[in-house]
User: What shape does this take?
Amino acid sequence: MTTALHIDDVHKWFGSHHVLDGFSLRVEQGEVVGLLGPNGCGKSTVLKIVCKLLSLDAGEVRLMGQPLSELSYRARGLVGLCTQHCALYPDLLPAENLHFFARLYGLTEKDRQQRVAELMESFELENFANTRVGQLSGGWQQRLHLAVSLIHRPKLLVLDEPTAAVDLEARMDLWRLIEGLRDSGTTILLTSHHLAEAQRLCSRVALMRSGKVLAQGSIPELLDRIPGKAVAKVQSENNKAVIQKALDLGWPVRQHADQIRLLLPCALSLREIVDALDGTQVSAVSVHPVTLEDAYLELVGGSP
Amino acid sequence: MQSSHLFLLQTRAVAQRLLLEQWRQKRGLIFWAVFPSTMMLLFGLVYAHNASMRAGLDAAAAGILVGAALFFSCLGGTVAVIAAERERGTLPRLLTTPLHPAAYFLGVVIAQLLLALMQVVMLYSIALLIGAKYQGSIFLGGLILLLSVFSYVGMGFFLGARFARRSEEVVVALSAIGVPLLVLGGTFFPLEIMPQGMQNLAQINPMLHMNQAFKGVAAYGMGLHELRFELAFLVVFCGLSLALGVQSYRHLLGGNKSQ
Assistant: This one.
């Protein structure tokens, strides 16, 4: 099977700022790959290059096996883009927006009618068929935005922080829709600040910092790279004592700002942890299984 | 799908969308209709009231159509379209589609042509009621208006792409660049009363040739032969406008690419 997207050693400068510094990534067909990293690490730049909205300075990008630089403007139909800001026409109805973009992609009349009806139904937009897009709530606008990016059945769907600008309820709805797309075999490249979003939706994750990928793999693979099975977050009057005690117990210790995180070799109860740290003036402890956030902190450092 | 078929489909989609948006923006539509109608009514009544000026009524109707109505509708409208695409964030989305730059340009031209046609009907209905006459060939007048709309849209693309990043800047860009062109185009004063330097400068202003050509046909019944110089200028300028419009669309793409 052809690799959907192959980004190889890409460099991009904005003036003297080296935004992408040898960025490489592969996305196989049917995969959902998440690109995670702090603001300004180059995530959106990668997506813009893939969508041909930005040119690259060095390196190569292949889309469905073909170099991006050799693809004509008609090949733009290979990719569908959905950003966090709803880029639609507010005075048009939802179906009118879908029809407009379907025509730009050259869908035939019959296919267009069928595809618009299909998306209106699967994205549950029928109840708002007579409402102008500008009058829809942010969540419904974003839902339509996602539908528009799928109108031409792209080989690769690019989602740039698709749930960043919507409320919690709308976010859950969008997650359910994206899960549906994933389960139907849509290839997706997604950026996000929400680690829970990436953990829920992505089959593979690439962790970025300063324009390059520092670690990548499936979620279980990344979790396996943490030297622990569970994490205890500890607050204490005497951090030094806690750290010393944990090291004596053979538990790796991580300190981020004022928070001490102990990587536990197995899932221990709160009582067992408190007993083990006896005499270290612990004021609060919480424990949870390792998550993508822990993997991020371990492999990249800082917050995404 | 064949490239030519896709091109036509895209052109139609852009034109249809713009007209639908215009139709839905009721307030804008009212102002769009009120402005040239009021101008025609005011100028028309002044000309009709003074017997010595009555002969100028036919020329005034032509001048208001080309110099005021189409200027604000086609040029201003195009600048506003580009600024709105930028502001709403639809521009990057369009740039991710296979939309051909020339199809986008042509779509805008067609939408503006249909709007221009409505303005012609509206404005000339008022003008004829007041007593103005259309003297020449309707076909030739139509050709001049077609060339004028093309030129205005091309200039609109240029101004929109280079100078109007937000809706608020549309009026500023129109005032700063468009209005001097209107003055030099003989819309407000006859060319003859201008200093020689201004007259020379006006010769390269497309609005002067639009005004002179349309006034020539509509007010003085001139034919193809008498207007050959103005028509040749407008045809060349139309070609330049198309190139400028497509290049400006690419500039928008380039602007995006270097962000």
In short: Chain A has two domains: 3-217, 224-299.
